[in-house]
Every structure is written in C-alpha cells, then in structure tokens.
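Here is one chain, start to finish.
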Amino acid sequence: VQLQASGGGLVQAGGSLKLSCAASGFTLDYYTVGWFRQAPGKEREGVACISRRGWTYYVDSVKGRFTISRDNAKSTMSLQMNSLEPEDTAVYFCAAEGPILKLVRPEGLCLGPGKEARWGQGTQVTVSS
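Its structure:
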C-alpha cells in the first residue's frame, strides 16, 4: 500500500513540469488527494488538493499556474506546473486521505492533513533563474 510520485526535475524559470502519483495496493476513489511541498528551512505547504468529486483547492501562490487532476479509474493524480518560478523549488509530495464516504472540501487535506493521511516519497523540483 503506497503512493509513488514521479516527474520532478530541473527546469528554467518560466518552464513547465508535470508530476504524477500512482497508488498501489488501494484505489483512490474515495480519497481526497493532493500535492504538498517543502523547501529547505520552510514548513510543508499544501499546494493543490482535489476531492473525489473534482472540487479543487490551490494555495494562492500557484493559482493560475498549477493544475491538479485525478484519474480514479487508474488511481493516479497529477500536478501540471506551468510558469515555474525559483520560489517553486522544493521537494514535492503526493498525499491521500480517506476513505471518505461523505463529500468533503479539498482544502481540508491541504490545510491540515490528518494522521491517517498516506504519503508518497518526495520528488525534487528545482527551478533555476
């Protein structure tokens, strides 16, 4: 039972990257899922989250640049990152919280993941100026 993240790398400012995360050992159908990041010396930050119904939440600093999506049939989630800035440099983690039968807002995960949240390993994103 795990989440496997991929897609990080080095890119110049203004460039794009797409992160992907696949679940194995469980399905994401009834999970809220999202992406977090942690830069050196900073606390972990919820970047984008999506509910099982497709409601989305983005932290202000990435609105209009990042897009989160999910494919329940494949138990995967993605984060398309455009117009990347040096400030986006961080280790990015995918996360899933659930299973949740009731409809919940995605910011619940992004703003306060619970102890039962499942985490993928981090993938490094480096944006050069």
